[in-house]
Amino acid sequence: MASKYKTRQGDVLLEFLRQRQGRHITVNEICAHFKAQGSPIGVATVYRHLENMVKDGIVNKYNIDNNSPACFEYVGGESHCEEVCFHYKCEKCGKLVHLHCEEFKELCAHLEQHHHFLLDPMRTVFYGICAECRTSADQRIKRRK
Amino acid sequence: MASKYKTRQGDVLLEFLRQRQGRHITVNEICAHFKAQGSPIGVATVYRHLENMVKDGIVNKYNIDNNSPACFEYVGGESHCEEVCFHYKCEKCGKLVHLHCEEFKELCAHLEQHHHFLLDPMRTVFYGICAECRTSADQRIKRRK
DNA sequence: TTGCGTGCAAAGGTTTTGCATGGCA
DNA sequence: TGCCATGCAAAACCTTTGCACGCAA
């Protein structure tokens, strides 16, 4: 399956993403990385490879906001996610963070049993405010008056 | 509270969205509607109002895909949501559904206590496959076997 | 030679922004 | 008169697509 990407840039890209397993990266960041390395890859090429990888389930794509670029992340097929993992995005600093927690298995089970909804954890993003932003300022979600 | 939108177009827009509570709509569809009605509203104006409404928690914004326009939906501030409510979106039929459930209070509490993350339920959307689509067709979301 | 991966540039679509206008207090 | 909502158009941005080139089989 990974042999599919044994092209000049494809395997390089995949390897790069694999090394960053657990982190998110945008297309621009990917291009910047390879440019800085002295072996630039065209944006189109990156998008084309990522599209295939997403289709194959090797990479996940997250659309956080319409104006900001999509985030990609290596998930390696079924390899590493025995545990259910989620993401949360801080509405203040924009950070996207991984969450690995047993609690979420119960959430999945609850949604399935009581709401007949089969949750896709990899696509679901929690919105709110992260710890850093909460402490740095007395921020609350409370809407303005 | 709603007086904030007592402008020429603002309250018209808000009323239109309120009538469509529970459904989501794009900016283009909004503009098309008012254009067809004979009282067109500029795209910029719609975006500007929606931005404010989202900030105030009256309207939710959903970014489904980076290439397709964002979906907006009236959720009516805190008026009807004493209880914690979430949404889920079916990846198959595109339906967006409200969820009211006590279970989610525990989720919020868990995220805050164990992950120091202050969840904003109104902005958070669960992705997955709904009951109807599960029974009608095959579901391949299960990533672990 | 043929096929295909690649890169550049242009196109396409969404959203934001600058600026001038007009309504309302 | 002054403020602000509004609309138009341009800009900004992300992503896709068209096309030609060059490497590899």
Report what the structure shows.
2 copies of one chain form a homodimer. With 145 residues, chain A is α+β, with helices and mostly antiparallel strands. Chain A folds into 2 domains: 1-79, Winged helix-like DNA-binding domain superfamily/Winged helix DNA-binding domain (Arc Repressor Mutant, subunit A, Orthogonal Bundle); 81-145, 2-Layer Sandwich (Dna Ligase, domain 1), CATH 3.30.1490.190. Chain A is built from 5 helices and 7 strands; from the N terminus they run H-E-H-H-E-E-E-E-H-E-E-H. Chain A has helices spanning 10-19, 27-37, 43-56, 103-115, 131-136; strands spanning 25-26, 59-62, 71-74, 85-90, 96-100, 118-119, 125-129. In chain A, the strands form 2 sheets. The first copy, chain A, has a 3-stranded antiparallel beta sheet. A 3-stranded mixed beta sheet of chain A has the order 5-4-7. The N and C termini of chain A lie far apart (54 Å). Chains A and B meet through helix 4, strand 6 and strand 7 of A and helix 4, strand 6 and strand 7 of B. Strand 6 (118-119) of chain A pairs antiparallel with strand 7 (125-129) of chain B. Chain B binds a DNA duplex (25 and 25 nucleotides) through helix 3.
